[in-house]
Amino acid sequence: MATTNARSVFMGPRLRRLRRDLGLTQADMAADLEISAPYVALLERNQRPVTADMLLRLARTYNIDLADLAGDGGVDHAARMHSILKEPMFSDIDIPALEISDLAVSYPGMTEAFLRLYTAYREEQLALAERSAPALTGAASSAGQESFDANDPVAEVRRYLAARRNNFASLDDAAERIAEPAGGPNGFIERLRARHNLQVRYLPPSVMLGSVRRLDLHRKQLLLEDSLDTASLHFELAKQLAYLEMEAEIGAALEAGKFTSQSAVLLARRALAAYAAAALIMPYSVFAKAAEARRYDLEALARQFGASFEQIAHRATTLQRPGLEKVPFFLIRVDPAGNISKLLDGAGFPFAKHGGACPLWSVHGIFKTPREIVTQWLELPDGKRFFSIARTVTAGGGSFGAIRVERAIAIGCAAEHAGQLIYTRDGQGPRADEPTPIGVACRVCHRPKCAARSAPPIGRDILPDDFRTSSVPFGFSAD
Questions:
Q1: H/E element, 124
Q2: Distance CA 80, CA 109 (A)
């Protein structure tokens, strides 16, 4: 008890929350602890400290872990508050770090209310941006391209992930508790057998009938397609463990999303299960340490963790746990036709919500150099610079005649973080002072000299070509 500091002794809000969680009145708790009800009220209002004897009495009476009861329960909330209050909208408010910590520890209810309001604000901000976008891209929408409006479940889930910076600390915590005793991917099969009485069987595609994983509860078997590569096999085993052992954490995260359709719920549930599977294979603390040690060398990390390039790239976008943030990355996955099948933004990159992305970005051209990493410095019209790493990835295959799908992955970060990556070491690759000028999408890009332009920018008048042919597809007025 000598380690209990002065701040943790005054724990009125936590005591009140404990009492309410137990369904007790102040009189009930007073009777259980053999003290007076007014004294309980004083403790809850922080007008009396919780003594060491009282902590022990609480732990024994309600069978509570003493470390959880006396520990600094506001650490996570304080870290999230510190992260949020760095936003530009709060830049003119001087809020000392000690005040934030005191608020998180002494008033966890108020802190939780603030965090919920901020998350809701971020989700609505993203939704508003997307609702207003069709006015800028009417031509693309009328041409039949995908419309990411507020009712689109895919767009809804993407907003949900973006508002949380693609990080779910509760899933990471649960995954670390499971991964350590399981002993990593090699122990998943034994854990399924020992804890869930499930036998893992490998069957050919002709028997699996289009599934790569199927849980047969009647026969107590987990069936996996025998042509899966090692990384995919580990991922499917981890995902099944996540569904079986992390249901509570996944459910809580889903409930916080307040989705408007069942399709959005199912898509989000699938995304959270995939997040949990990655966290089981690559636990947050271990992966974050390895990523920094290897300077975010994606291929080296893939070999270290027995994962695929895409799995490593995806996991790198999740390293934004408040207080333990690493390099913030964005990620996009596209097919040769330009269709976007994965979009994760943790670095503030302005992805096109409607229509195609800029063809000058290397992610659209690396199909000509499969499995080769291509780096590129990017500069947006507003002067913001990003560093991009692109490479092709393959899905499917595994046997002769099996369909293979080639896609391209691009993962990147803002220019100020690029120096932490191995890809910028010793001046390798493209020069930072010679970035490729790109736009978000042609309809909202006002660069006048772009030979790759597919449509004129909105709000600019097209110039006649009666007497002059421009060297670019669309000549337009400068103002």
A1: helix 108-132
A2: 14
- State both tokens at 252: 């809580």
Length of the chain in terms of residues written: 479
Asked whether the CA dihedral 202, 184, 249, 23 is positive or negative, the reply is positive
How far apart CA 178 and CA 222 sit, in angstroms, is: 19
pLDDT of residue 131: 57
Provide the pLDDT confidence category of residue 427 given band limits of 50, 70 and 90.
Answer: low
Give the confidence band of 160 by pLDDT, cuts at 50, 70, 90. very high
Closest CA to 386 of 344, 418, 433: 418
HSE-CB of 317 using CA atoms within 13 angstroms:
26
**How far apart, in Å, do the first and last CA atoms of the chain sit?**
71
pLDDT reading at 126 higher than 70 = no
Looking at the DSSP assignment, which residues form a beta bridge with residue 392? 408
For domain 146-281, give the fold: Arc Repressor Mutant, subunit A (1.10.10)
The residue whose two tokens read 């608020």 is 103
Q: What is the CATH number of domain 318-445?
A: 3.30.450
